[in-house]
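User: Can you recover a sequence for this backbone? Please restate the input before giving your answer.

Assistant: Of course. Working from this structure:
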């Protein structure tokens, strides 16, 4: 059995999964951090919409599955527990407890907050939605995802909360070239997934070592056996991760700043 906290502390990237109040599985990719010894993530307010479902989730799964975050020939792991969501609107807790860890693991943050001057200029980057993994059960090993174009998380509803497995994903060509449904096969060879019903296939990939590009993709629908009848897709596996040009970087930062400020104001108004 993998020791979860040491794995979480070493990992560069992680996945957080849950089932919303409507019974729909959801997942995001994030930077794994330790908040005073507790597994956590700290999302900038530009991602407040993504984090909204975590506020009402009763259980959440924290997972590390990407092989680049794992030791050679070692499995990943998942732990399910109670989410604790905190609005750090001033960014004080993040700046003191978590920023240094993020600067090490997520290089794009260095351009915004790698000095006191940058922190003052980009104050909007420090406020965070912090999600901690509260009371939780034992970790469960998961196969490592070694091929971001084909390997993904399969998220469904289990008896103890979200059920997470790692699968190999292929399109099903049952309706000609435009077919969009998926077939999934557990990487560990076992049919011990979430079972029939609503399910989400979720994957992500990123550039190394700068993480300038970090793209996610997902497909949700109804799982029957190993076949997922897809009703909604976002992104595509195997997408291009070419370096951004200067004007793209500038535009991305402006968009990031605008979205962070918008959601920070909204969080302040909810107080």
């Amino acid at each position: 059995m993998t020791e979860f906290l040491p794995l979480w502390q070493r990992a560069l990237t992680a996945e957080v999964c849950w089932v919303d109040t409507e019974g729909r599985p959801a997942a995001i990719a994030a930077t794994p951090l330790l908040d005073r010894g507790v597994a956590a993530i700290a999302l900038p307010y530009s991602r407040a919409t993504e984090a909204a479902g975590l506020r009402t989730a009763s259980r959440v799964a924290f997972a590390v599955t990407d092989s680049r975050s794992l030791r050679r020939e070692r499995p990943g792991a998942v732990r399910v527990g109670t989410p604790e969501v905190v609005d750090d609107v001033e960014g004080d807790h993040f700046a003191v407890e978590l920023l240094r860890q993020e600067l090490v693991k997520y290089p794009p943050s260095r351009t915004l907050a790698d000095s006191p001057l940058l922190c003052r200029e980009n104050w909007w980057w420090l406020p965070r939605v912090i999600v901690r993994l509260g009371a939780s059960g034992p970790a469960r090993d998961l196969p490592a995802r070694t091929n971001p174009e084909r390997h993904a998380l399969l998220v469904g509803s289990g008896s103890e909360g979200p059920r997470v497995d790692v699968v190999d994903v292929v399109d099903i060509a049952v309706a000609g070239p435009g077919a969009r449904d998926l077939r999934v096969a557990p990487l560990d060879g076992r049919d011990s997934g979430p079972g029939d019903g609503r399910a989400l296939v979720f994957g992500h990939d990123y550039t190394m070592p700068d993480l300038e590009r970090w793209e996610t993709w997902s497909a949700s629908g109804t799982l029957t056996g190993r076949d997922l009848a897809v009703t909604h897709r976002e992104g595509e596996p195997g997408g291009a991760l070419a370096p951004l040009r200067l004007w793209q970087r500038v535009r991305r930062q402006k968009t990031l700043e605008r979205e962070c400020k918008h959601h920070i104001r909204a969080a302040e108004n909810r107080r």
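That completes the design. Residues 207 and 261 are 27 Å apart (CA to CA).
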